[in-house]
Amino acid sequence: MVGENTTLYCHLSPERNAEDMEVRWFRWRLSPAVLVYKDHQEREEEQMAAYQGRTTFVSTDISKGRVALIIHNVTAYDNGIYYCYFQEGRSYDQAIMRLMVATDVVLDPDTAHPELFLSDDQRSVRRGASRQSVPDNPERFDCQPCVLGRESFSSGKHYWEVEVENVMVWAIGVCRDSVERKGEALLVPQNGFWTLEMFGSQYRALSSPETIIPLKERLHRVAIFLDWEAGDVSFYNTRDSLKLLVTHQQPVALARLDMAVSPNRQVSCLLAFLLQLLVLQLPTLDSAPFHVTAPQEPVLALVGSDVELTCLFSTNESAEHVEELRWFRQTRSPAVLLYRAGQEQEDQQMTEYRGRATLVTDGLPDGRATLLIRGVRVSDQGEYRCSFKDNDNSEEASAHLKVAALGSDPHISMEVKENGQIQLECTSSGWFPEPEAQWRTPSGGRLPFTAESRNHDEEGLFTVAASVIITDSSIKNVSCCIQNHLLGQEKEVEISIPVDVTLDPDTAHPHLFLYEDSKSVCLEDSRQILPDRPERFDSWPCVLGRETFTSGRHYWEVEVGDRTDWAIGVCRENVVKKGFDPMTPDNGFWAVELYGNGYWALTPLRTPLRLAGPPRRVGVFLDYESGDISFYNMSDGTLIYTFPSTSFSGPLRPFFCLWSSGKKPLTICPTANGPGKITVIANAQDSIPLSPLGEGSASGETDTLHSKLIPFSPSQVVP
């Protein structure tokens, strides 16, 4: 609710210590942030101005991977998506949740029936024994004891809650602003009302025909969700994890709140009207020996999973001995499932459901007829009708199944055009319904497609391909995101575009000879006569790259081929270049080497590296902010070694060393030296779930979201 405080929870699963991790809450990608926790403290300088002084980071259980964000004095601006992001080195993951800020609803006394008495704060209503002397306004109900809320909605999504505990008769919902206030009219959608009612112990939606809602326990508080553009009005039980009760689906036009309920045992304002309505309908209800209902909300199932569709007798009578129970699609025969004389009739079953569809008989004594479909397919999507037949009477209801599939991790390839521009293509398959593809920059901006295609296979699953051309040389990282809006989930791959590294001749040892526009280096027996500059190595046979890095993430590749005796990596720009200081992180070097027949990480005690096979091309990855330097075998995408995270300060530069002479050079792989495809490192992130309902929880609070820390697992993209 506006003005209150709310808490958003997030934790790692499985449980692990997050004290040394970066935790970030943000709205629109990574920056600016709602709150940043880094290096064991909050970073106020990175916080959005709108949240400064209004947030609290709860880290009491951070050693168990549990954190929370408290937002104080919630405003309407706070409504929407929030990302919870954990990062440790190159490992990270995030979860998404939606915060829904409740609309501040008050009742409109000018619309209240004369027998309705409003509280001083106009937030509750009771019905009195006498009529008040009030003006007969055009907007006032004169026959139906009803009252509207002051608020009017002509767009957007809105939500509020109503206390109904211990009230025996009530009706709440939404109506058009133009509904008839004088005389009697049914509270049905045709008359501009979308309403949920309770009379005695029975709940129902006043649709046409009405929908009985079987509940095991009485409702205490009901949440109402209005989606104006979608034309949906939904009612939820707030005490059962926001379990959906019913959804009205119809264009709403200009809507107002139709309120007929209040706490503290106050009498519903629709009492007289409901009594009359029930009397009129009793003959109709008595004429049918049973009534069949099914959930109005579609059931969602993943391709390959199992799903249950249930219909039931409104009277909860046993269905064990009914003459016939039939589940079917467009035509009654053949059926999805036919249950007759106490057993399934397989010879009457549709071919595509044989062996996959069966009846769950456990619920029959309670009047529940549950259809179990195994191995859900795309073709299973659609309407299912449940029909009961007993003697000469029959009733049926319909349920709707929605099918979805989360596709493969996106696969990215890179091609350098003749004009030097870089074209990226992202592909992913196995999606349903048709997914949306996006190319994003690190700041969250979108890049326009140069080409896009979608097609589906024989099973109905979609493959999407989207291409983009990078014309801005300053862009070093982009991501491809494939979204399934029905599931509220996405898969995202981030790629690093290779840096165009060249060798710096002013740093090269005199025995090192540079070739191919300073892209290759060889160690020769002869010594060149070169100026003895301060930046030149005079003992170690090494050379630096021209490029310096003081922020961001960077990546380049080195062709080592079958050459032996080399070292490559990253160093501080100000490392000692004279003499034989050890090449270790303490001295500003982070490198791996091949010496003789062994691979080593140049740590103080030299760490031996056990590789599945000799790499012919090595990728070097630098993440300045996280303090990570990693090396990968680009032949198969496997990790060679990652140095422990450190805190960088000052410029860093690529560096290369050769320990023996020979004709075979070390060569920096080109990024824009003509057409051809090259390898790209891709970091595929697990699907990111939205909170329950696909939109988030209500009342300014959210359920705890689960996140697992995903290790950075590059995969080679084969040209």
UniProtKB/TrEMBL annotation:
<dbReference type="InterPro" id="IPR003879">
    <property type="entry name" value="Butyrophylin_SPRY"/>
</dbReference>
<dbReference type="InterPro" id="IPR013783">
    <property type="entry name" value="Ig-like_fold"/>
</dbReference>
<feature type="domain" description="Ig-like">
    <location>
        <begin position="283"/>
        <end position="402"/>
    </location>
</feature>
<dbReference type="InterPro" id="IPR006574">
    <property type="entry name" value="PRY"/>
</dbReference>
<feature type="region of interest" description="Disordered">
    <location>
        <begin position="692"/>
        <end position="719"/>
    </location>
</feature>
<dbReference type="InterPro" id="IPR053896">
    <property type="entry name" value="BTN3A2-like_Ig-C"/>
</dbReference>
<keyword id="KW-0325">Glycoprotein</keyword>
<keyword id="KW-1133">Transmembrane helix</keyword>
<dbReference type="InterPro" id="IPR003877">
    <property type="entry name" value="SPRY_dom"/>
</dbReference>
<dbReference type="GO" id="GO:0005102">
    <property type="term" value="F:signaling receptor binding"/>
</dbReference>
<dbReference type="InterPro" id="IPR007110">
    <property type="entry name" value="Ig-like_dom"/>
</dbReference>
<dbReference type="GO" id="GO:0001817">
    <property type="term" value="P:regulation of cytokine production"/>
</dbReference>
<dbReference type="InterPro" id="IPR043136">
    <property type="entry name" value="B30.2/SPRY_sf"/>
</dbReference>
<feature type="domain" description="Ig-like">
    <location>
        <begin position="1"/>
        <end position="97"/>
    </location>
</feature>
<keyword id="KW-0393">Immunoglobulin domain</keyword>
<feature type="domain" description="B30.2/SPRY">
    <location>
        <begin position="85"/>
        <end position="284"/>
    </location>
</feature>
<dbReference type="Pfam" id="PF07686">
    <property type="entry name" value="V-set"/>
</dbReference>
<feature type="domain" description="Ig-like">
    <location>
        <begin position="410"/>
        <end position="496"/>
    </location>
</feature>
<keyword id="KW-0472">Membrane</keyword>
<keyword id="KW-0732">Signal</keyword>
<keyword id="KW-0812">Transmembrane</keyword>
<comment type="similarity">
    <text>Belongs to the immunoglobulin superfamily. BTN/MOG family.</text>
</comment>
<dbReference type="Pfam" id="PF13765">
    <property type="entry name" value="PRY"/>
</dbReference>
<dbReference type="InterPro" id="IPR003599">
    <property type="entry name" value="Ig_sub"/>
</dbReference>
<dbReference type="Pfam" id="PF00622">
    <property type="entry name" value="SPRY"/>
</dbReference>
<feature type="domain" description="B30.2/SPRY">
    <location>
        <begin position="481"/>
        <end position="675"/>
    </location>
</feature>
<dbReference type="InterPro" id="IPR013320">
    <property type="entry name" value="ConA-like_dom_sf"/>
</dbReference>
<dbReference type="InterPro" id="IPR001870">
    <property type="entry name" value="B30.2/SPRY"/>
</dbReference>
<protein>
    <submittedName>
        <fullName>Butyrophilin subfamily 1 member A1</fullName>
    </submittedName>
</protein>
<dbReference type="Pfam" id="PF22705">
    <property type="entry name" value="C2-set_3"/>
</dbReference>
<dbReference type="InterPro" id="IPR037958">
    <property type="entry name" value="SPRY/PRY_BTN1/2"/>
</dbReference>
<dbReference type="InterPro" id="IPR050504">
    <property type="entry name" value="IgSF_BTN/MOG"/>
</dbReference>
<dbReference type="GO" id="GO:0009897">
    <property type="term" value="C:external side of plasma membrane"/>
</dbReference>
<dbReference type="InterPro" id="IPR036179">
    <property type="entry name" value="Ig-like_dom_sf"/>
</dbReference>
<dbReference type="InterPro" id="IPR013106">
    <property type="entry name" value="Ig_V-set"/>
</dbReference>
<keyword id="KW-1015">Disulfide bond</keyword>
<dbReference type="GO" id="GO:0050852">
    <property type="term" value="P:T cell receptor signaling pathway"/>
</dbReference>
